[in-house]
Amino acid sequence: MEKYVNGIAVKEYGDKNQPPIIFIHGFPFSSGMWEQQIKQFKEQYYCITYDIRGLGKSPIGDGQYTMEMFVDDLLAIMDGLELNQAIIAGFSMGGYITLRAIEREPERFSALILCDTKSEADDNAGKIKRAQGVKAVNSYGAEKFATAFVPLAFAQGARQHIPDIFNATLEQAAATSPEGIKGCLLAMAGRTDTTKFLSDISVPTLLVVGEQDAITPPDVMQMMHERINGSELVTIEEAGHMAPVEQPEIVNQAIGDFLSKLS
Ligand code: MLT
What we know:
By secondary structure, the protein is α/β, with parallel strands linked by helices. The protein has one domain: Alpha/Beta hydrolase fold, catalytic domain (Rossmann fold). It has helices at residues 35-41, 67-80, 93-104, 124-140, 142-153, 158-161, 163-174, 178-189, 218-227, 243-246, 248-260, and strands at 2-5, 8-13, 20-24, 46-50, 86-91, 109-115, 205-210, 232-236. Strand 7 (205-210), helix 9 and strand 8 (232-236) form a beta-alpha-beta unit. Helix 1 crosses helix 11 (248-260) and helix 4 packs antiparallel against helix 8 (178-189). The model has no long low-confidence stretch (mean pLDDT 97). The structure holds D-malate. Residues 26-27, 92-93, 188, 215 line the site of D-malate. D-malate (MLT) binds at residues 26-27, 92-93, 188, 215.
């Protein structure tokens, strides 16, 4: 069922009495990237997806976003759905939101699934790249930006091996509004660093990374794994940054194994 909660486009699947999992997508994607995970987990869990402000069906507004605002949206969705606590699966930018949200309100989250993400804020080179992204959107438009960005998010050869998935992802990203893309780029550039908080995370945590992830690479997630007490790290072969989309069965197996161990 699709509805707007605090202005954000939210979809719910499964039985509200089952344990809730909120899936947060990455940039410049939409909640649709979790299709294969929802299919797998909606029978046993109350699954929630939503489109981050500026992306998918959520409002673009004035394109002025911050990571704090994205966290506010997540917490407002939880309040709106009357969820005191949830398991969160955050992919990349969705992981940035997840990490900052648990740092701000640790009692609201019972377990974390962090896919292809990182705790470090952008360094100088990263900030310059975001600025170049904003400039590229202004000069050439959102479609060209997405067309250049999406291939970097997939493993080598994905365009040939999984053309339907690759093309659907590209098509969705290319349809994103310029204001939404620029707003997210600036929100990511301005986000805080959550690395120091990693050792304070006390809930079960699964880390998943594509072995060919060039955006949030395996060594970065290995560092997070070493700092998060008792965390598990699963590396997905033949996958890039978009591991949950590129290798859904293997990622779902890892998520399912992790969830089955939660009480
Ligand atoms: C994402 O997939 O959300 C982005 O690649 C994250 C980023 O650009 O830092």
